[in-house]
Amino acid sequence: MGNIRNWWSNLHYTALQKRSLLIVAGLVLATSSFFILRTSTPSEAITPPPLSMDMADVDLVDMTIDIQGAVLRPGVYQLPMGSRVVDAIKAAGGVTKVGDPSDLNQARKISDGEQIYVYARSGTATTATQKAKPKPKSAAFVLINRASAKEFEALDGIGPVLASRIVAFRKANGPFSAIEDLLKVPGIGAGTLSKFKTKLRV
Questions:
Q1: Which residues contact 124 (CB under 8 A, 6 or more apart)?
Q2: If we measure between CA atoms, which residue out of 175, 184, 182 comes closest to residue 200?
Q3: Which of 55, 86, 103, 127 is 20 to 30 A from 43 in CA distance terms?
């Protein structure tokens, strides 16, 4: 302690300079202590901000679909986004005893506002089917949303390959809305369609 006092007395500074030096040294010491204490204190866990309602509810958004035909409870339903045709059929209570969902691709994802129609097996009909899809007067007409590949083959200009394409396209994309939708099937052009268009019904 005496050595420090002697060293301090022998410094060639004025009293004011020595006082300033003490102040600077004190500030340095205080600042160093502050940073040492801060780094030694465990940091608090950072809690991420809560998800907003829009982000949290993304998977809960519903879409509205209409399912008709040979199902137990036809009508309009709300399903979660990303639902598939099979989910819509389940929501409507499943198919009836005469229902035939084989024309539908049940694994296909459905979109908001879509209508799904489950047809009855050939030779049978439900009340909903009779109201929404009346049978044509002539048995010669081919119903493009119900016909099998064999029935399409009976049309002029349609062979086994093209008939299979029509059925596969219908299963992948849902029922045709109009006869002209057949032009979307690879291999069917306007000329081909004109050969049998009058024999088709939706």
A1: 98
A2: 182
A3: 55
SS3 117: strand
Structural domain of 32: 2-40
Contact 95, 71 (CB under 8 A): yes
Is residue 74 located within the same domain as residue 104? yes
Token duo for residue 159:
């062979």
Q: Which two tokens stand for residue 94?
A: 């499943």
How many CA atoms lie less than 13 Å away from 132 in the CB half-sphere?
18
Candidates 59, 68, 127, 128; CA nearest to 92 is 68
How does 111-141 read in b/e, with b if 16+ C-beta sit within 10 Å?
eeebbbbbbbeeeebbebbeeebeeeeeeee
Task: Give the CATH number, domain containing residue 172.
Answer: 1.10.150.320
